[in-house]
Write a structure and sequence with these properties.
With about 240 residues, the chain is mainly β. It has one domain (about 5-240): Jelly Rolls (Sandwich), CATH 2.60.120. Helix content is about 10%, strand content about 40%. It has three helices and 17 strands. Strands 4, 9, 10, 11, 13, 14 and 16 form a seven-stranded antiparallel sheet that branches. Strands 5-6-17-12-15 form a five-stranded antiparallel sheet, with no helix packed on it. The two termini are about 30 Å apart. The relative contact order is 0.23.
Length: about 240
């Protein structure tokens, strides 16, 4: 299991506990009411400033998701219990909205708030594979910048991950082209700029990637059902630099 898949395993298990299997097409685009989802796959991610939001069809009106056709969250695993971990907030550095993630207790499990590039399709046989991570992407950014706030509880830590990969036809596995992560431990009460520099010091680092994953979470250890209830992470106005 890759680093990024571990980060959202908690949401996958919660979803499995509360849902039945759906017969939707895993390759279908995310359909979101109130959005014109047009993933353009340029050198920036669609709606990377989290300013446009809509309601996914499968949510039953229980939660919203950033528009753009690429963003998913842990909400499918918690919304059926009447809770959401990821939502829009008007507390933004620019524009109308930012994304806010909060760690909660759901069905006696810790669920960290998260937003990530990918889709969620329940796999009851292997919940770790419920999250379909990434989107087609062939660029190699130097870094990712943005603004954040973080309110940790009892020493909790947030995390941001960028993962660029390329499918290896010989091994049938994905090779890491570039990677960056940034945990956050301190209280940051005003929007503060961040920059994650992508490390390309991998065997496939000179290759052109075919997929990118970006993941934000309010509790770094949520994949182990660990975190502190109430830890809150806000992200706004992100972009790749070249």
């Amino acid at each position: 299991m890759t680093i990024s898949k571990k980060l959202i395993l908690a949401s996958a298990v919660l979803f499995a506990l509360s849902c039945s299997k759906k017969k939707d097409d895993p390759s279908a685009p995310i359909v979101t009411l109130g959005c014109f989802d047009r993933p353009d796959y340029t050198n920036q991610l669609p709606n990377f400033d989290f300013d446009e939001w809509g309601t996914p069809i499968e949510s039953g009106g229980k939660y919203e998701t950033p528009c753009g056709g690429i963003w998913s969250s842990g909400n499918p695993g918690t919304a059926l219990t009447g809770q959401v971990t990821t939502y829009k907030t008007t507390d933004a550095i620019s524009g109308d909205y930012a994304v806010e993630m909060t760690t909660i207790s759901s069905q006696n499990l810790i669920a960290g708030g998260s937003i990530y590039v990918g889709k969620f399709k329940l796999n009851l046989n292997n919940t770790a594979k419920s999250a379909k991570l990434g989107m087609p992407f062939t660029y190699k950014p130097v870094s990712m910048t943005g603004f954040y706030k973080y309110t940790p509880v009892n020493g909790d830590s947030s995390n941001i991950i960028i993962l660029l990969t390329k499918y290896n036809q010989t091994t049938g596995q994905r090779d890491t082209v570039g990677f960056a992560n940034q945990p956050g431990y301190d209280l940051v009460s005003t929007y503060t700029a961040f920059e994650l520099v992508v490390d390309y010091n991998y065997p496939a680092g000179n290759e052109k990637p075919d997929t990118v994953v970006v993941n934000f979470t309010s509790s770094k250890a949520a994949e182990f059902f660990k975190g502190e209830i109430g830890s809150t992470f806000k992200i706004d106005n992100c972009k790749f630099t070249y």
